[in-house]
Amino acid sequence: MAVETLEVVADRGYYDGEEIKACEEAEITVTLPKPMTLGAKAAGRFGKQDFFYVAADDVYRCPAGERLTYHYTNVEDGKTL
Fold it and tell me: What is the b/e burial string over 63-72, where b = at least 16 CB atoms within 10 angstroms of the residue's CB?
């Protein structure tokens, strides 16, 4: 494609470990959300997609409008979460 760097964005339906690894090996930056593997909704709980980040306050809000308290930062597969 005659470019020095390539970045791609996809939705969670395209999350495939082998494809992501192939992109990494080809030096293609991939941005996509992790698949929803937990059955939070099926169990009657809210999922991550139900919470909203408020940049101005640097907080998340739950579906009831309450502010969420920061608890910790986690590192998973070399990525800060």
Answer: eeeeeeeeee
DSSP, collapsed to helix, strand or coil, labels residue 43 as coil
Query: What digits encode the pLDDT tens for the residues 10-20?
Result: 887 777 888 88
Residues 6+ apart with CB under 8 A from 29: 5, 6, 7, 8, 23
Domain match, 53 and 77 both: yes
Domain that holds residue 53: 39-81
State if pTM tops 0.90: no
Is there a single domain that holds both residue 45 and residue 27? no
- Which DSSP symbol is given to 18? H
Backbone φ and ψ of 12, nearest 5°: -65, -15
